Amino acid sequence: MQVSFDVPVPMSDGTVLRADVQLPAGDGPFPTLLQRVPYDKNAPATRDGALDTTRAVRRGYAVVTQDCRGRFSSDGVFAPFVNEAADGVDTLRWISTQPWSDGNHGMFGRSYSAFLQWQTAALRPEGLRAIAPMFSGANPARDWFGGDAALEWGFLAFWSLRHLAPDPELADAVLYEREEPQQEGSPPWLAEWLDDERRATAMADLDALCRAAADVAVPALVVAGWYDLFLRGTIQAAGPGAAPRELVVGPWPHGGANPGVFPEFDFGPAASGAAIGLTERQLDWFDRWLRGTDNDPRPAATWYHHGRGWVSGNWPPPQEPVQLYLGADGTLTDSAGEPGLATLGYDEADPVPTLGGTTFLPGLEVAANAGPRDQRALLGRPDVLSWFGDPLTEALDVAGNGRCTVATDAAAGTRWVARLVERGPDGRVMLVADGASGSNPIIDLGPVAWRFAPGSQIGLLLSHTSWPKHRRWITDSAPTAARKGSSTVRTGPASCLTLGGEA
Question: What is the mean pLDDT of residues 152-172?
C-alpha cells in the first residue's frame, strides 16, 4: 500500500480541503472509493468505521478519506450540511484528474458521511457509479431532528457539544443537569436548532437544501440498524428510486462496531456486522457497479429478525397486521371492549428517564443507553401508563411497521412517547421498539422484526416525556417553568396498537 497524507484538494471557491490517499501497489489506474468525514480522518474508528479501508485497497481500490470543509486538516468554515454536496462533486472531479484514477468512483461512510453521499449523488457527478450510505437517510430535517415526530433533543446536544464543537462541561450540564444550552455557550447552529422561534425556519431551509433519495440515479447499498435513531429515514431512503437499491438491517445502534451486543441483551455472534460481512458486501457492491463484475445480485433486502436470524426478501414482508386495543383495565386485547378512561400524569421537574431504544446518547460507542433495555424501573410511575396482553400460547413473529393510536384530551403539540415491550416469564420487560410524536397522537414505532416468545406478554408503555432523548418538557417548546398535571387517554375502540404491515 502507498499512503499520502493531507493531500490538498482545491474546491471551486478556492478553499482547500485535505485528504489521505491509500493506493494499491502498482501503477494503476484504479477505481476509487471516497469517504468524506467531519470527525477527523486520522482516527481509526472514523477511517474504518463503515468499511475496512485496508481490505478495500487489497481488493484493488484507491481509497480517499477527506476531512469536510472547516474540520480538522481542511480549510474553510464548517456549516453543518450546507456545503457537502458541492464539495463532494468538486472532490470527485479532482479525483478524476489524478493519474492513479480510472474515472470510476464510489462513495461510502456512515452517519453524516452517509447523508452527504445522498446529496452528492443527487447532483449526478461524472464517474460516480455507486454509493453505500450507512445509518442515514437523505434529509436531516426529517430524519435527524425528528421531523413531524418529537425533537431529538439529546442527539442534537450530544452530537454538537461532544462531536462537532467539543465542550464536555456544557454537554454534561445539558444532558445530566437538565440545563438549556445558552446561546453564548453553544455552537451557532445548535443555538438556532434549539431556539423555538428560529428552529422552524432553520428546518425549512434545510429541507429545501436536501434532494430526495428517490431521485438519486446512482445504485445504493443502504445499511440500517434497528436501534439507530436514524432508522426510519434510512429505510425510507432505501425504497424505490431512480437506480437499484439494496437494504441491509441489523440489530445495531448508531455507534460502535455493530456487534449486536447491549448491556442487557445479546443478539448472538451471528447478528454482528462482521458475521454478515459488511465490508465484503460493500466491496462486492462496488465491484458490480465500478468494475462490471457480474456477481450474483442479492435480494432487495436482508434483515436480522430476532427469533429467526437473517432473512431475505422484500421489506416489509407481507403480513396481516396485528391490532390490539388498550383496555381500561390495563390489558391489551384483540377485542375493542367498552370505552374507558385512563389518567396519565406528568411532572417536568421529574421527567421519565430514557432507557434504551433508538438513541444517540453518551456511551454510544458501547451502546450503553440504546437497544433492548429492561423497562421495569418505569412501571408504576404516575407518569407512565402500561398495558399488557395475556401470555402467548405460541410464538408471534412480527415483521413490519408499528404504530400506536391514542385518543386523548391532551392539547395539540403535546408529546407522546410509546414503548413496545415484551415481558418475559422471568419478569424482565425488554424494549422492542420506541417512538414519539410531537404533533398528533398517532405514534410511529418504526420498523420491527421481532419474535415474541411463547409465555411472554406483548406490552405498551405510554408517557409524555423521555429524558434526555427528548426535552424534559411535554412539548418541544420550552416554557418558563416546569409544569405538572395530567391528561386523559380514552381506552377501548379509540386507542390501539398495530404491529406489522406497511408504514
Answer: 83
